[in-house]
Design a protein that fits this description.
The chain is built from 7 helices and no strands. It is mainly α.
């Protein structure tokens, strides 16, 4: 598939300078254990859990160690990304609606339940390969 078509369909497209800047700012936030700017604790915990299932920690660092949540928080803190942040939060709410009756948040599920839910939703706009 043409990469321009994929990028156009992505929830979030960034230029290389924007990516580098966000990486620097998010690394600093990770090192300082900074408060999140756009995510509440439950949203952050769910996004951390989702990223950890997609890029797990094994013999190399995973999404959690890389501070993916801080990168997302940095990117979505930009005012021009308000509609994309709303789409992200809407997608997460839709995912939460599919939780078992006794579950409120994705991060509370065991890994098997998380993987099943992600697998069932991998073709949705929220979890498509280029969603973020």
């Amino acid at each position: 598939m043409d990469s321009a078509v994929v990028a156009k369909g992505s929830l979030l497209t960034l230029s290389l300078p924007a990516i580098l800047s966000a990486c620097q700012r998010s690394q600093l936030a990770l090192e300082q254990g900074a408060e999140f700017r756009v995510f509440d604790a439950e949203t952050a915990a769910d996004l951390i859990a989702i990223a950890a299932r997609i890029i797990p920690t094994d013999d190399t660092p995973g999404a959690t160690e890389a501070g993916v949540i801080y990168f997302l928080d940095t990117i979505f803190d930009e005012p021009k990304r308000a509609s994309q942040l709303a789409s992200l939060k809407e997608g997460l709410l839709t995912l939460r609606e599919q939780l078992p009756p006794d579950g409120r948040y994705f991060y509370e599920l065991d890994e098997k339940q998380q993987d099943l839910l992600l697998s069932d939703n991998e073709q949705t706009p929220f979890l498509s390969p280029c969603a973020f």
